[in-house]
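Lecture 7 notes: from sequence to structure.

We start with a single chain of 411 residues. Read the sequence below before looking at the structure.
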Amino acid sequence: MPLITPFAGLRPKQECAEDVVAPPYDVLNTEEARERVKGRPRSFLHISKPEIDLPVGTDPFDAAVYAKGADNLNALVSEGVLFRDSAPCYYVYKLVMGEHKQYGLVAAASVADYNTNRIRKHEFTRPVKEDDRVRQIDALNAQTGPVFLTYRHNKVIDGIVKEVCKTTPEYDLTADDGVQHTIWVVNDNSLIEKITATFDAMDCLYIADGHHRSAAASRVAAQRNNNNATDEATHDYFLSVIFPDNQMQILDYNRVMTDLNGLSTSEFLEKVAANFDVKESAVEVKPGCAKTFGMFLAGKWYALTLNDNLYPANDPVARLDVSLLQNHLITPVLGIDDPRRDKRIDFVGGIRGLKELEKRVNSGEMAVAFALYPTSMDALMSVADADEVMPPKSTWFEPKLADGLVSLVLD
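Now the structure, written as tokens:
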């Protein structure tokens, strides 16, 4: 079984693509999705968040929701809005957000290689979210949300992608968030074989985003293979978009806390200064390098620099900036031991900017905010290579993949 393989994608007709394309299911809540689909009956949100077509208040995990998603998918196929390619293909996927561009490959990635950690992970998953994705895949008999994978960049793949992008794309559209999505179909057998062989010679791939989707695909494959399936099938793979590491863009993932753990502002600053050099700033502080942090407290910005003797150079997890802040300030000073479950901490994606941190503190909702330097791709891969797990909310990838442009049907 190869590391990746082409597949016959389920995708919209060219003239329907703009009507179908939608944000990933997990970046909108139900109310936002309801607003987004007004006047858009073909939006893929009717498939990825089908509770929007059921009465307000419907539990998104109700069996009726998954059934409605399947009905909506089948309707778009029956109407001819979606069709399936007649033969296995790869698809080149270009994302443009502002000045940033990245070129990936839509492919089916091996569940077996995921299970043996050749496709490497860096996050824990939550059973509730895994269960949700398993039920969605089973109901649709398709994988519609791609897993975001990365690899150490490769000149052969770069060359193939460059040549493909000289041809006319199948889709070229700009979503309502301003991100441009362009897709080319790769159906030349010689190119397909070269892509498959080049990836198969790689040591590994890395999950950037989509740990729950990949874990769910593994569970679905195990279940179906236990039901007397003996030949390799599409359920032995999962839908993915694979980008080279040198094109990936990780933004900061910042932290806000509801209180100072019973401390006054001056007492809090004194405790922070035990582990950090603290300097008040007249302007907002956006960290420019690792081991530095911005802090917004009581209407003022501060620049924090971790004391050098506290940096654990040889531990790939402990040396992450998210770990340094957690281990040397959030836990010992604010008393938040478990950021996964403690309701006193929240997380703000860097796409929202530092003004969002100021807003949440100035409103009184939060007491203090911290701006972090983005986690690097090298750091992510080092953690995955060590078979370790990153702290929660360590990475915020932009731009996001769209749903609906290519899906993987399970035969």
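The domain at 253-373 is CATH 3.30.1760 (Conserved hypothetical protein from pyrococcus furiosus pfu- 392566-001, domain 2). Keep this in mind for problem set 3.
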